[in-house]
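Rather than argue in generalities, we have chosen a single entry, letters for residues, whole numbers for local backbone shapes, without further comment.
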Amino acid sequence: MKNIITTRKTKLAATVQQLFTGKSIRNNLSVACLGLALPFAAVAADEPANGVQKEAEIEVISVTGMRGSLTSALAQKRDTDNLTEVIMATDIGKLPDQNLAEVLENVTGIQITRTAGIGTGVQIRGSNANRVEINGASTVGSGAGRNGMNFEDLSAAIIAGVEITKAPEAKTTEGSIGGTINLRTIRPLELTETLGSLRVQGEDSSLTTDGVQPRISGAYGDNWQLDSGGKVGFVVSGSFTKQEATSFRPRVDRDGGLVENASADVYRGFGDDRQLENVATDRPVAQNFDFLGIQFLNQELENFEYETTNLATTFEYAPNDNMKFFVDAIITSQERRQESTRVQASGVGSVLNYNLPDTFETVNFGSLDGVNLGSIQAATTGTIQPFLNVHDSDPNLRFNSDTGARVTDTEVFRIGGEWQDDNLFISAEVSYASSETSTPSLNSQLNFINPNTPLSDLDADGNITSDTDNDNAVPFAYDLTGNSLAFGIDFDSPFAPSVDDLLDYNNVVLDQVDISQNTNENSDTAFRVDSTYYIDDNIVTSVDFGYRYNKTKHSAVTISDRIGGFSKMIDSPNGALFQELLVPGPSHFGDADGRELALRNFLIIDPDRAFNDPDGVIEILEQAMLENAAVTGGSPSLPDLTPSDTAAFDIEEESHALYAQANFEYEMIRGNFGVRHVSTDIASTGNTVSNNVVTPVTTTADYSYTLPRLNLVADVTDDIVVRLGWGKDILRPNFGDLNTSVSFGTNENQALELGNAGLEPEEVTSFDISAEWYFAEAAVVSIGYFKKDRNNLFVTALDSAALDGNGLRDTNPACSGGGIWNPSVQPILLGDPNSEGLCVDRQSKFNDSATVTQSGIELAFQYDLSSFEDDLGWASGFGVVANYTIQDYSGGSATYTSATRGTDIFNAINGIYDDQEFVTYSSDQGLLDFSENAYNFAVYYEKYGLSARLRYTWREAYRTEDTAAGASLNSTLGFPVVTHDRGQLNASISYDVNDQLNLGVEAVNLTESDITQSCVNEGALLCAQGITDRRITFGASYRF
């Protein structure tokens, strides 16, 4: 056995290992913390062995449970030479939260975004562009992104700890803006006794209807000393989780609801198309002030059902003290099933100028880039009645069922070894990550036929004709007061249907079914070798060299088709022809906030049947269309799911990276300086079609970057540490942003998204400086400043389709006025409903030519009262963890520009009502999902076997493109919506019945905090809500 010199690093390793000695791991820090213990090579000497064994100076920290995980994480953070945050599990499968995104939310500078209340997105220092690794190996996502594995695909139950690297070293793999997230699993050779654990839980959501969902996880591991003197061990952990998440997302569009005042001379169009509106006929409800009426109502119930299986196993073999081999395997399988509904009041804009709201509010749009937008009146309460002499089919009622899934199988394999002698350490590994995802969907739309209003264009005998629309008028009522978007049927209207009418299958017709069977395949194959040469020098202690090769592949196939998109009754089969598929939709939309107005009674195509037997559902609908056509003479629409010639898109990327890094330590200064050089070749392949000739086209590109990185740490005193970091990194564009294949939708208001094969990687230069004061055992207060200069930022461009003097879009495929031709659109309000195809908005990505600068300050505090046990007794179990982040950004040249609807409103506010005199309004694009202020505050108690935690997290308002029911920039006035300030309270409590059995309860979103979204600026025009659930998880864990 070699003589090992005890240095700062080996002292920490010994300290952490000492926490696990004793007869029972339960009496010390949980064995799960070993997942973040220093790897085998960490006990290598920082200086060459000189034949003298120095006595190890070990300060043993004896801690348990929650306090133990905080203590160990703090010790590791303090020892690092770069800025790294650490979170450790309190026990096997027991990170602070059930969801990995919510686990990360505990860290300073991190905020998260949620889907139906489930954490799905993570922003580190305001950026979504972060790299996710498992045990240092790359992972791949389920879609066209670059970040890596989706957080909802991996259960926190199999993760022992998390490292977040904010300031990279030269050896850190490139590819993140905010930071690198490394998820660590348990290492078997670190175990001091046999591991065995089982955890069984149930989760209940306040807004779901399927009851308690199960969670089961467990782990087993052991190691053995071999007769040959070596050591071998393995660990296997796994989890099975079912989860249901529901949120209610009402959306009200008032952006297209401008009614100009009665005195205004309103001119529409240009040149020969320029027309003066007639107040009496065009807007008879005009007042002596401009106002915004109702243009669209959408009641979305978002429901996702998750079934996730995770398996992680590690095998390690150390034939002697100088060598180790390992194999890691992480296998995940997730089915995320969607059973969402949307009930829409469509065609409301047709009677906008004939329904006077009962009450109004003053909406102040605030300012954009210093330009004051002004205020306008907007409808808050009223009814929307049919005016059959104006429009005989509007406003109409539609029932949508969005049934789909994301089925993802992900694998990560890692095999390698480590070897060291007196002066040299070498490690090498091969890793492979793959993800196969299918996203089948069957989304249906039914039109309600109101028996109390007539159909259009009937013949003399009252029978439908080829001109009869497949919808008719329905009255609505709305109440938008109290920061709530409530609406429903106006049952007091003489036109109102009854509840029985709404649930009668004879009163619905099939309008449209969208079918897709898209697939994504991603893989990353990597080989890396890392070496450290230890130097007998007073300053430079070691030099690191390494090489990494990886090949990344992305393949996407888009297969979709549509049944219908009908506009006429002769083509639309009646519900009686497919009644076996119809079921009542969810009726509990008002349960979350007690609202009286809601659309509770409607029919949808059975989502369970659509998911489990899509072919059978399509067959029944096809038969219904054939039977309908035989009677009416209509044209059936049969689906074709044969991939189109442009359906497939492939990208293959090869990268080589070399790095060299010098590690130094002199008196109170330590750190490293190094350079990473990366070169990449990329090839993208897709088909182009010209004159019906299909031609495969491969586009190639290459680039290289040199990325210097510096980290300095000054141990100013025994208790004060000052850190400084500076470095460069790159972010490659998402695969989806490079994809120039087009997927045509059917919504006239939905922008068509196009990729840009010419996108270049984003470049970032980062600077960090921080100070940490470890003023007591397991306690710290810290302050840090960071700055990032970002070049080639990926930004969004919106090219709006123009409107003519009649408020209609161009039907010429050339789209000379802007936008792009979409041949699949069935126009409703913006074109002739009897035609197909329309110019629509175009949205794409490009590189910003100007630099965007981010900067911020991070504050953190951690303390507990355990050292006052003699004085405080039971009260010494309390502790607190808190952090606060304030950040800002500036620069950039890309702008958002007001869409047509926004331009109309902002000009009206300023007294301009002539299209020829309109000016557009713009704002810097900046950064999405970026909160300037955010904080976390957690108080915990741990004593006498009782462990409790209460955590409140808050983030300030931020701009986002995550809107209710897929609202586009066109329908939010041309700008991202603003999600208001929001806080959330989570809590947990558990009790150790004995050394083996623990009982616990956890609550997420205890106060049922909702989401509020406004258009343009916070507190301006209320656009949408997200009414989220409370989730309670209860169960038991047993160790043996």
